[in-house]
Design goal:
By secondary structure, the chain is an all-alpha fold. The chain has helices at residues 2-25, 27-34.
């Protein structure tokens, strides 16, 4: 269980940060999501 968590946690963090960076860098994306 702990081994699986140690491999999943960094992946989730990477996804989270990449999503936020894309959201912050592209205002056009924000407009698309608001539709």
């Amino acid at each position: 269980m702990s081994a699986r968590m140690s491999t999943l946690a960094p992946l989730l963090l990477l996804l989270y940060f990449s999503f936020h960076s894309v959201h912050a860098l592209t205002p056009i994306n924000r407009d698309l999501y608001h539709i």
